[in-house]
Hints:
25% of the residues lie in helices and 40% in strands. It is of the alpha+beta class.
Amino acid sequence: MQSEQRDDDYSVRSSSVSTRKLIIASLICGLLILVAGTLKLLQTASEPEATTTLLALGSTAELGPVSVAVRDVEVTTEQTLVDVVMRVVDGASIEATTVNESWSLLADGEITAPIAPAACEQTAGGASGEAASEGDALMCTLTFVAARGTPTIVYARDGEKRQWLGS
């Protein structure tokens, strides 16, 4: 019997990895993780810091060929109404039918698109419902879901984004 136990012990020891090798492997893995973390930290430290400026209601921002402003935000129990003014600055056109595509609302940790077509009124020259020449303005009321807390209104165009803090 003793000879059988010796054979079993020997086979277990010969096919297993020693504790020393496991410790060395874990130290190497830990060192690789530490080096990777350091490299990522250095990479993010050299990137320019992205800051988001929240504009006040009534503030105007230019995004490419369009000047936009959020005039008023009214939050009711059923919906959030946002009054905006959009002006052509540099030869572009703004159509009332595409206004909703550029606006969104951040509230309650969710980003939402307008839930109804924008109600727009065009001022100055140009065709009805379209600001087509420089100085033309399109005043629209956007309808979003009811917001709890303070909503943030976002306008995005041509890869740029501006944000207004609602009341």
